[in-house]
Amino acid sequence: MTDIRPDIRQIEADIYERLSHVIDPELGRSVTELGMIAAIDAHPASEGGYDVDIRVELTVEGCPLSQTITNQINGAVASYPGAALTPHIEVSSMSRDKLADLVAGLKAERRQNPFSKPGVKTRIFAIASGKGGVGKSSVTANLAATFAALGYDTAAIDADIYGFSLPGLFGVTTQPTNLDGMLMPVTAWGVKLISIGMFAGADRAILWRGPRLQRSLEQFLSDIWWGTPDVLLLDLAPGTGDMAISVAQALPNAELVVVTTPQPSASDVAVRSGLVALQVPMRVRGVVENMSWYEHKGERLEIFGAGGGARVSEQLTAALGHDVPLMAQLPLEPEFRETGESGRPAVLNADGTLRDDAMGQAFRSLAERLMA
After folding, report:
1. What is the pTM of this model?
2. Is 297 annotated as a binding residue?
3. Which helix or strand (DSSP H or E) is residue 108 part of?
4. Can you tell me the mean pLDDT for 248-252?
């Protein structure tokens, strides 16, 4: 009888190598690197080919992404050439000690704000406005969703502690997963999110002063496992308060994007949010004019006036000594607001793809200009 054990050992080794390309969606590492593949056992099947038993240990019991991971493992095994493999996957959770060792290793690897390290490749855009009500959070949410739809690994921090709104705009009602003391951001519409609005008691009025605000940002940056996103967006509070200064100190490589509406009462104040760059190490990248017009029966109605974005661009260019372009003019669309309030970034279709209309094209162009 022919000895088949060497073939089986080779099959098991090949499957393990294939599983090294299966990425845990939350931690952004392969399931083999994270120690999630506890065992692989191949053996001949009675009807020919091989049965393969794979024991998977998830980091969290009842992980909501377990089906996603299982599907990826099935796909990796199915790609094995030259032998009929039937996978049988047993899913359990890591022991307390194994999970503690994993988290300790991840924390030791990071040790600090991961976005301030030399050589970091994450592009960071802080979305600011001079006053509230100009659609800054809506622009942040839809820009983040656009980046994700274009294939970028995207993260967003709701740094507007007093007026957080990103959870609602993304339809998030769950809390971050606590991985043995390390929090995982909530993923919605392809974007990794964190907001004070995701935690218990967040419906109450928040009366924090400067030091606690700064500490909240430090925790969002350091105590959350972000992986290595391509893009990080921060939705800042209106004005030039403590959080804007904290962002500049913690993320000196951040680029500021100023949102305004066309009327002078908004654009004049918006200039001040950009002038903060004269006092802190932050570059102003550009200006976005929101609610530029309303289209009615083929006619563009400038309900809030005209020229606000251009005025902010010109004044900041003159004051800062470098080009601060008007990067986008976004129309006013009631449907856009209604869809956003339903919990889906309105720039996306229901299947998560980017809308192929004027609004979708405007956000695509904005994203591409920012990444250029």
Report:
1. 0.78
2. no
3. helix 96-110
4. 76
Give 337's Cβ-side CA count (13 Å radius): 11
User: What is the separation of C-alpha 301 from the centre of its chain, rounded to a whole number of angstroms?
Assistant: 34
Domain 5-94: give its CATH code.
3.30.300.130
Query: Does the CA dihedral 339-325-158-161 come out positive or negative?
Result: negative
Domain segments of the chain: what residues?
5-94, 117-371
Is 163 labelled as part of a ligand binding site?
Answer: no
Q: Are strands 177-179 and 182-184 parallel, antiparallel or unpaired?
A: antiparallel
120 known member of a binding site: no
Q: What are phi and psi of 364, to 5 degrees?
A: -60, -45
Is 130 among the annotated ligand-binding positions? yes
- Nearest alpha carbon to residue 92 among 134, 129, 143, 58: 58
30 is in an annotated binding site: no
Quote the pLDDT of residue 50.
79
Cβ neighbour number for residue 281 with a 10 Å cutoff: 11
For domain 117-371, give the CATH number: 3.40.50.300
Q: Could you please report the per-residue DSSP string of 188-215?
A: ETTEEEEEGGGSTTTTSPP---HHHHHH
Q: Which residues contact 57 (CB under 8 A, 6 or more apart)?
A: 35, 36, 37, 38, 92, 93, 94, 98
Is 131 a known ligand-binding residue? yes
151 is in an annotated binding site: no
**Percent of the chain clearing pLDDT 70 (strictly above):** 88
Q: Can you name the residues that pair with 166 across neighbouring β-strands?
A: none
E-strand ranges in the chain read: 37-44, 50-58, 85-93, 123-129, 154-159, 177-179, 182-184, 186-188, 191-195, 231-236, 255-260, 283-289, 294-296, 299-301, 326-329
> Residue 93 corresponds to which tokens in the numbers above?
């959770």
Q: Is 132 annotated as a binding residue?
A: yes
As given in the structure block, the two tokens for residue 355 are: 């809308």
Q: Are 231 and 202 in contact (CB under 8 A)?
A: no
User: Which band of pLDDT confidence, cut at 50, 70 and 90, is reported for residue 5?
Assistant: very low
Helix (H, G, I), strand (E, B) or coil at 29: coil
DSSP result, 244-290 = HHHHHHH-TT-EEEEEE-SSHHHHHHHHHHHHGGGTSS-EEEEEEE-
